[in-house]
Amino acid sequence: MEKYAVVICGGGSTYTPDMLELLCFAQKDFPLRKVVIYDSNEERQRKIGEYGKILFRDYYEDVEFSYTSDKEEAFRDIDFAFVQIRAGGINLRSSDEKIPYRYNCIGQETCGAGGLSYGIRSVPEMIQLITDIRAFSPDSWIINYSNPAAIVAEATKRVFPNDRKIINICDMPTQIMDSYLPLVNKKRSDVEPRYAGLNHYGWFTGLIDKKTGVDVLPEILDICVNETDTVKKQLNEMYIGDKHWGSTFQEHLNMILDYPYSLPNTYCLYYLYPDTCYSHYNEDFTRSDEVISGRGSNVEKYCDSIIKLGKMKETEFDLGIHINNNGNDVSNVTSSTIAYNDVHAPYLIELAISIINNSHDICLVMVENNGIVPNLDHGMMLEIACRIGKYGVEPLHVGEVLTFEKGLLENQYASEKLLVDAIFEENYQKLLQAFTINRIVVDTDRAKNMIDDFIKVNGDYWPNFK
Ligand code: G6P
Ligand code: MN
Fold first, then answer.
1. Does ligand 1 lie within 6 Å of residue 170's CB atom?
2. Active-site residue identified among 171, 215, 289, 421
3. Which whole number is the average pLDDT over 269-288?
4. Which residues, 6+ apart, have CB-to-CB distance to 252 below 8 Å?
5. From CA 214, how far away is CA 112, in angstroms rounded?
6. Could you give the CA distance from residue 453 to residue 3 in angstroms, rounded to a whole number?
7. Closest CA to 203 of 154, 252, 160
8. Cα(149) to centroid of ligand 2, in Å?
9. What are the pLDDT digits (tens) for 290-348?
10. Contact 292 CB / ligand 1 (< 6 Å)
11. Which ligand 1 atom sits closest to the C-alpha of 171?
């Protein structure tokens, strides 16, 4: 049996423990020989690394596990690189969220001005990282889910145009499927999605039952429209204990009621309801503050406790118990049956499993348009249903999008394309255009003011735009 070597880049991320545990659960279907976690900041991942040693010793003995800040150690002899870096860290995420508020505009991790600011930091770091991985493991699969993924995908497409093994992917569509499929008693593994758009700006156009070939999306939309209160309640229960995503999904349902012919990505809210989104945000305590005090501190406590105990098996952190408490049994994980709600990473493992088995399962990933949607720019990096196998990503044809979606997408793509031009050319004019054309920014003077503020806080993370 072939066994694989994985590196997780951005080892210090709060998502890493989930990811590592999922690798342990998926050992039957995604057998591993080596797992390395890599972070450019040694200190940031030390705790997670120490916890990881215990985890793998207790649950996946024959895997060689290590953590490092050394590129060669991290990237040599690797089959899969899972990349989840956050250029500038959570502190600059906070600035991305807060600066736009000074100008009465939404500040968000990946949408609008905040997303553009983050893109400027992320693109050069991603290009460097891919170059480094390629230097040591030229044939590895690089699965990127670092944000803002749409902008990163546009940039990596230009720099590595012939590299079939770089795949940009996002978990949000899987979370949306997991949220609405229960309305028709289905799980994600029961359906094949049809979806089109840019990352964080797309729509499901079908959810096709694998057994019957029937599209269940119309039925889901009907239920949303005709039994709204029941759906509200169900979503509420699903996201109990997660205020942010709970209220996001309530708003998401409202959005479906306004446009009841497709199932939008939750991130469409920022573009279609900027006033409502703006009214929800507390400038002094934005999402990054919630993440630091919530997930950030929980993960730290979790790792601390396990390190102190020196073991997980037969403790309160025993994975069996931990998982059963969440109502999930993944001891029989098999390809495309990982419908594992509490964990961030199943979509990545599903992708990897489809690759190694060459099983051509459908996953939503980002790929260059090239006629998939003939009435959109051919260079656009669409997030789309693709068959995934050893050869790589093979997109399914979509056909034309409607005028409303076409207008929104082309506007956003112009902003993203101008931004990537601006980064590569260090061109201030294009930077200003990228901000101004963005649907959430709109005004030239506001764009100039925000850019001035962003330049101050981003320091060397931003090039010197001329
Ligand atoms: C979803 C998106 C990610 C994004 C994350 C933010 O998972 O797909 O791209 O980074 O949400 O979540 P957070 O809990 O950090 O605000
Ligand atoms: Mn995402």
1. yes
2. 171
3. 94
4. 176, 264, 266, 269
5. 37
6. 49
7. 252
8. 7
9. 999 998 999 999 999 999 999 999 998 888 734 433 444 444 443 333 434 445 578 89
10. no
11. 8
Residue 161: how many other CB atoms lie within 10 Å: 8
Q: Whose CA is nearest to atom 16 of ligand 1?
A: 287
- Name 346's Cβ contacts closer than 8 Å, sequence gap at least 6: 22, 174, 338, 339, 340
pLDDT in tens, 111-142: 999 999 999 999 999 999 999 999 999 999 99
Is 171 tagged catalytic?
yes
- What pLDDT is stored for residue 344 in this prediction? 58
Ligand 1 contact, 289 CB (< 6 A): no
Across 262-391, the runs of DSSP E, i.e. the strands, are: 263-264, 361-368, 381-389
The predicted model gives 77-95 an average pLDDT of 97
Contact 48 CB / ligand 1 (< 6 Å): no
User: Around Cβ 404, how many Cβ atoms within 10 Å?
Assistant: 10
Residue bearing the CA closest to ligand 1, atom 10: 147
pLDDT for 28: 85
Other C-beta atoms lying within 10 Å of the C-beta of residue 99: 23
Class of domain 4-170+284-356: alpha beta
Q: CA 292, 297, 299, 300: dihedral to nearest 10 degrees?
A: 120
Q: How far apart are CA 355 and CA 116, in angstroms?
A: 32
The answer, yes or no, to whether residue 377 has pLDDT greater than 90, is yes
What is the C-alpha to C-alpha distance for residues 236 and 245, in angstroms, rounded to an integer? 10
Q: For 431-449, how does the pLDDT look when each residue is reduced to its tens digit (9 = 90+)?
A: 999 999 999 999 999 999 9
The per-residue pLDDT of the chain, averaged, comes to 93
Nearest CA to ligand 1 atom 15: 291
Taking the C-alpha atoms of residue 172 and residue 155, their distance in angstroms, rounded to an integer, is 21
Q: What are the angstrom distances between the C-alpha of 81 and each of 111, 113, 239, 311, 408?
A: 26, 29, 31, 27, 33
What is the distance between the alpha carbons of residues 108 and 119, in angstroms, rounded to a whole number? 12
Catalytic-residue membership of 258: no
pLDDT value, residue 322: 41
In three-state secondary structure terms, 66 is strand
Our mutation pick for probing the ligand 1 site, out of 13, 170, 277, 347, counting the most ligand atoms within 8 A of Cβ, is 170
Q: Is the pLDDT of residue 6 over 70?
A: yes
